[in-house]
Amino acid sequence: MADPTSHQTSTKSSDQDVEAFRQSNHPHSHETKATSEGDQNPGSSNTQDDDLTSSNAPKLSLLRLFWYFFYNFGLFAWGGPVSQIALIKEQIVIKEKWITLARFQRVFAVYQILPGPEAAELCMFFGCLSAGRIGGIVAGLAFILPGFVLMLIASYLYTLAGVENKYFNASFRALQPIVAAMIFKATHKIADHSVIKHGTKKVDPFLLIAAICTALNSALRLNIFISLGLYGVIYMFIARRLWIPAGMLFILQYVGYAIYAVFRGVPSPVSLALGIAKTPSLINLFVLGLVAGTLSFGGAYTAIPFVQVEAVLKGGWLPQRVFIDCIAIGNVLPAPLVIFATFVGFQGGHVDGGLGKAFAGAVVITLGMFFPCFLFTIAGHSLLEKLVHNKFLSSFFDGLCGAVIGVIAVISFQILKPSIQGTERDFLMKPEELAIAKGAQSGIAAVLFMVALAVLYKFTNKWATIVLVISGAVAGQFLFI
After folding, report:
1. Residue 44 contacts residue 55 (beta carbons within 8 Å)
2. Phi/psi at 203 (nearest 5 deg)?
3. How far is Cα 79 from Cα 138, in angstroms, rounded to an integer?
4. Domain around 47
5. Is 142 contained in some domain?
6. Which pLDDT band holds residue 373 (cuts at 50, 70, 90)?
């Protein structure tokens, strides 16, 4: 077992290195590289096969395994997925050499197309190597537990302080445009990987069109499931140069929309929802987490729009400003960002039945959110490693990931609007002077958004986000009181 203090060395790994690694790490490009090298040197294929299957993982007891992942990674999962992945790679692969770098790249390629946070899935994978499937579950829980407990505490304190507390609201009023800036930056970062053709490393115009059209479809209030599945299928046809079926599907989506609009009218905003959480009962919260977790390709930013439309727009039991606050809290905790679901479950349970149900709601929605990544990682990794190299299936996920960018872009605008201009309630306040003062704060919020966006692009260090959120919370006490 490694020395627990070794996390200090691992935290020095560069975010930029992981970004470059993430971009270069696609199963097809890796497979092509392996093939070309094998052609040049016939004896190299056996070596490469060994690199992709060998393991030097230590056999740890479940207790020691839990402590290893809890202490080295769970407690220090600050700075988002890029930093978390860098930490795991540096400690386990580079320093302790549990597996070869080639195998790590192959495993990481698989997890990039699976739902769920990739860092948590990597911990589960290494736990499986050390102690079997039970070890994978233990390692995953160890990684997630610190962030879950902290988010549970934050949710309770948020409810205890009361959303009407002026000091509390001042800090979160400043944080809302900062969160909007974070999602804008994330949209750009994810697009860097999702609309790139892996063979040429250039922008794939078809994936870019998928992203733009999905954003347009969201504006037209087409259900996101339709767009994601449709562009996955369309890109499968494009990858196989079946232009006519691809073109027909592309045209039919808008023909179908026009027919619907003529006979039923333009869909309402809530038509984007499935209606699985009209009320925040425990079973509804679990199903909400389960579906959102299944949709979380590329991490939490894909799950955000789905939870928002179900809880804020369709259900109406979670205010928009509270939803934005939970994303802000999730950004500063050592946890996968999907931990924001814990906060949503807590607030939903509190609305449905008081404090006891609030804690239960937080637990059940978190279980639902993480269940898909546990299931895929632990039960089917070996099968998925084979399937991901199937060109037909891989192209479907490429199209789906391109379409996801459009969904995230729309949600970033939806969060930006109320975070800058305030809510309708602000402008209906009495006396009128107070409403005017609230309106004047919109200019301050817009400035905060631009400053936050500039900081996020200027400073890529993993601590930049945490420092920005803390600074925003403090600044709010001076700007909005």
Report:
1. no
2. -65, 130
3. 23
4. 4-148
5. yes
6. confident
DSSP calls for 21-57: HHHH--HHHHHHHHHHHHHH-TTHHHHHHHHHH----
Mean pLDDT of 39-60: 62
In degrees to the nearest 10, what's the CA dihedral of 299, 474, 15, 372? Answer: -20
Of residues 36 and 397, which shows the higher confidence score?
A: 397
Average pLDDT score over residue span 259-274: 80
* Residue 249 tokens, joined: 């599907």
Residue with tokens 């589960």, as numbered in its chain: 124
Amino acid at 392: F
- Token readout for 101 is 């770098």
Extract the tokens encoding 462: 């993993």
What are the start-end ranges of the E strands in 37-169? Answer: none
Sequence-separated (6 or more) residues with CB below 8 Å from residue 44: 37, 38
In a domain, 369, yes or no: no
Q: CA 369, 373, 379, 380 torsion: positive or negative?
A: positive
Cα angle value 15/54/387 (rounded, 5°): 75
**pTM for the full model?**
0.70
What are the φ/ψ torsions at residue 196 (nearest 5 degrees)? -100, 135
H or E segment and range at residue 357:
helix 355-374
What's the domain count of the chain?
1
Q: Measure Cα distances from 257 to 120, 215, 223 in Å.
A: 39, 15, 11
* Contact between 140 and 128 (Cβ < 8 Å): no
- Assess if residue 350 is contained within a domain: no
Spatial separation of the C-alpha atoms in residues 344 and 348, rounded to whole Å = 6
Residue 93 falls inside a structural domain:
yes
User: Any residues with CB less than 8 A from the CB of 288 and at least 6 apart, and which?
Assistant: 276, 277, 307, 310, 311, 344, 365, 368
Q: What is the mean pLDDT of residues 371-387?
A: 77
Higher-confidence residue of 143 and 298: namely 143
H or E element at residue 197: strand 196-197
CB 275 within 8 A of CB 315: no
The rounded mean pLDDT for the chain is 79
On the question of pLDDT at 4 being above 80, the answer is: no
Closest CA to 179 of 460, 449, 447, 478: 449
- In sequence order, which residues have a C-beta less than 8 Å from that of residue 225 and are 6 or more positions away? 274
